[in-house]
Amino acid sequence: MAEELLLHACCAVCMAYPIQKLTESGYDVTVFFCNSNIAPLSEYERRRDELEKYCEKMGYKYMIDEYNPSDWLDFIKGYENEPEKGRRCNLCFKYRLEKTVKKALELGIKNFSTTLTVSPHKVSREIFKEADSLVHYGVNFVREDFKKQDGFLKTMQLAKENDFYRQTYCGCSFSIR
Question: Which tens digits make up the pLDDT trace of 116-156?
């Protein structure tokens, strides 16, 4: 029996290759769409709906977390003016990864990972640092830099083949600038 893994996913585009790779590596993956950072609501809904549609098409298990942008804004308070790839982004990673770990615990899943590392716009070592800070919960972080070995190219090819909606900014209102 395959080990279960809860995969934090930010969108269908970024999820397409990582879920394929993790499944091929022998994990029984459940996708967790946890993105209260995404603004406005219409953008959140568009990304959520695209991910749901793809998961259903492919037969992937998935869960959608509650959308609570005020909770996310409270978490990053004081860092709104940070540049992209700054402390606000690290806090955003921590917020979503911690929620993923807590959901994994609730579900009895012992492993988690994230699709965030597939993006060339994200610093994987910062994502790993935030994930590693959560080991005290007792959930194993499956460390994959999905952009390596043409991972970003592969996820872009899958996005094109599936005619995914491709956003023009990371997600939060501060990244629109």
Answer: 999 999 999 999 999 999 999 999 999 999 999 999 999 99
Q: Give me the domain span that covers residue 162.
A: 3-176
Whole-angstrom Cα distance, residue 118 to residue 105? 25
Query: CA separation (Å) from 64 to 9, 31, 33, 152, 159?
Result: 10, 8, 5, 24, 20
What are the strands, taking DSSP E only, across 15-80?
A: 27-33, 61-64
CATH number at residue 111: 3.40.50.620
CA distances from 65 to 10, 25, 75, 96 (A): 11, 26, 17, 10
pTM: 0.96
Structure tokens belonging to residue 150: 């043409």
At 40, list the tokens.
Answer: 């406005």
Q: For residues 105 and 79, what is the distance between their CA atoms, to the nearest angstrom? A: 29
